[in-house]
Amino acid sequence: MGYLDEALHVFDVMMDRGVPPTVHLCKLLIFEFCKRGWVEVAESLSLEMESYGLSMDKVMYTYLIYGYCKRRKMKMAMRLFMRMLKVGCEPDNYTYNTLIHGFVHLGLFDKAWVLHNKMVNCGLKPNIVTYQIMISKYCKDHKVDCALMLLNNMLQCNIAPNVHCYTVLISALCKEQRFEEVDSLYLQMLDNGIIPDHVLFFTLAKNHPKGDEVHVALKVLLEIATKAYKIELSGVSSYMERKM
């Protein structure tokens, strides 16, 4: 119900009466405190939790890290990350992506790439979210060429970009009036089997000559319908093969 002060009071009463907490109860409180922005209180609770012999898991650590990243307290987030490693709790893609997003949001791409490389060295494969975070920020900071290079790296690593990666890139290229590259990237997107979304449609319509919006709309809708038909046809073929 959102009564966190009261929840904390009940928790303190439990401790005073010698009733030991459970991992589930501590996790619930940590999550709710982080949602409210009380990250320091959540971390204090995590330390108290460990004093009772209860172990934090990677989800709780990541939640605390996210809380600090959201408040731009990256030193605190990294301190927790190092504590996580020290106790032998292995971070996952979500943990790394949370930290990368925090550094990228502050424009600290060098630190984000250090984490990216550490992630790879630990045997974790960067995923679509990892690259989408960096592509979006590069485009926002008018570093479109860096974003394009990152997109090419994704393709070389067999990581399929989603429509959001292409949308931010096409929008950034349009702002720089690099329309030949827009057309090339749009065709590449279609060749990779990605269906345009409404954001991409409005981006293209906005940057086409005035009065050409209907032509753009029909073109995008035709591409969506063609893709949908191919998916449906593929599904029917698979069904018939199973029946045979």
From TrEMBL:
<protein>
    <submittedName>
        <fullName>Pentatricopeptide repeat-containing protein</fullName>
    </submittedName>
</protein>
<feature type="repeat" description="PPR">
    <location>
        <begin position="162"/>
        <end position="196"/>
    </location>
</feature>
<keyword id="KW-0677">Repeat</keyword>
<dbReference type="Pfam" id="PF13041">
    <property type="entry name" value="PPR_2"/>
</dbReference>
<feature type="repeat" description="PPR">
    <location>
        <begin position="92"/>
        <end position="126"/>
    </location>
</feature>
<comment type="similarity">
    <text>Belongs to the PPR family. P subfamily.</text>
</comment>
<feature type="repeat" description="PPR">
    <location>
        <begin position="57"/>
        <end position="91"/>
    </location>
</feature>
<dbReference type="InterPro" id="IPR002885">
    <property type="entry name" value="PPR_rpt"/>
</dbReference>
<feature type="repeat" description="PPR">
    <location>
        <begin position="127"/>
        <end position="161"/>
    </location>
</feature>
<dbReference type="InterPro" id="IPR011990">
    <property type="entry name" value="TPR-like_helical_dom_sf"/>
</dbReference>
<dbReference type="Pfam" id="PF01535">
    <property type="entry name" value="PPR"/>
</dbReference>
